[in-house]
Design goal:
The chain is of the alpha+beta class. It contains 20 helices and 10 strands. It is globular, with a radius of gyration of 25 Å.
Length: 530
Amino acid sequence: MKKLLLIILVATLISLWPFFKKGYFESHDGEWMVIRFTAFHQTLAAGQFPVRFVDRLNSNYGYPVLNFLYPLPFYLAEIPKAFGFGFTDSIKIVFVTTTIVSALAMFWSLSLVFAPVAALAGSILYIFSPYRFLDLYVRGSIGENVAFMFLPLILGSIVKVSKGDKKYLPLISIFSAGLILSHNVIAALFIPVFLIIAFTLTKKNILQILGALIMGVLSSAFFWLPALLDLKYVRSSQIIVSNPTEHLVSIKDLIIPTWGYSPLPTGTGHMSVQFGIVSIFIFLTTIYLVLFKKVRGQNIIPLLLIDIAVGFVMLKISSHIWELPIMGQIIQFPWRLLSIVMFTTSIFAALIINSQNKKTMLSVIVIAAAIFSTISYTKPVAFTDKGDGYYATNEASTTVREEYAPLWSVETQKTRANEKIVITSGKAQIKNEVIKATNYSADIEAQENSNVTVNSIDFPGWKATVDGKEVPITHDNKFGLINFQLPPGSHTVIIKYAHSSLHLLSEMISLIALIACGAYFINLWRKQNS
């Protein structure tokens, strides 16, 4: 067993070689993730927890991006940062460690059902997949990569529960919460898949597994509930960030191996949306074995049907399906569905090898084919070494169309905010100004009624106090900046981003769910050891 784990580790490290070069490499989102992490870290260090609004981004006018997009990768990046690693290296460490853990976790989950060598092949395929390398080296999606770590952990826990080991129920909750916090879209795709898998494995414990998944959803409510209910305040609710039909492809694009670095799967240098040669072979072999009753198919047929559905909705002929809100607004990009193919291929490969007599030889063949057919995809388009200073001072929004700017910010500032607190009408002098991340204070001497403008966009959670008393905030300007009135006199002013009532409610729901999971686990442990 130790030798198999060592093989997985070595193979995974080989696939990750670009992360061990100095600096970073170019990708669609990779460098944005470093920029976002630097702003996250500055805000967390200033005392905001959970981090929702970062005030350095969006040209120093602030941006609530972490109220809407996956936060867990950045909390994980705080671990290496606490040990002295830089911002860039901390993000790279998250990529590397979660990829390694995902492979080991897939081996664990598959070995609960299949022979060790079969599980070995499945775990290697989980890494050496075109879509995995698309995420790592073309898109730079840290959220999806962290989410891929939780998928096999949930799968293995469901298998354990189906065999009667109920202490894994709270782990299903914890892992599903981690999945949601890693990438909400991947979670939306896979939670129904896990319910289908659970139903095929066990009818007896299906309600308990469903309850565990629900507890996982509730445990992550501090993130998704404000993201869902605050969405009506931001541009994303009224604009189309991406047109899914631009990402639909032909059958040829799914089958024939290609590789490129463009954001679109069509045109010159298009990024690849291929299933992968090995994945196609394994899929067809699985169908053959099921049809001719070489393997038990009742647990596999639903997954085969899901893969067929994935292939169909990625084609141009399915464009009408992407007009549905759940498809166009939630999934957004058809090629995200390849994550399901990557996951099921690992299961199918283990199933095929497990059904044969010469398991070791077949496992070696599958592993070799997977590695040699995809190893060339581990090369990024270009390496760069800009240094942490570049990322820590960059003030980009780190989103495509500033889609998380509030609706009342009808225009985007073209110049950065050099001062946080300014007097825009009346007569007043600002003294003893202290500016920390999302926490500003100053002594202001006002000779007459004055209007104070804070160069940060207003969003639910901002509060202003004058001499310890909260005052009303407005944002009646085209940029949506914070305004409030100040009467004559000497005043101590504090403007701080705090938790809104919705935030507090969501955090309370998460806390109660986590306590319930912990109490259930302790109760099971006591019963097992009594």
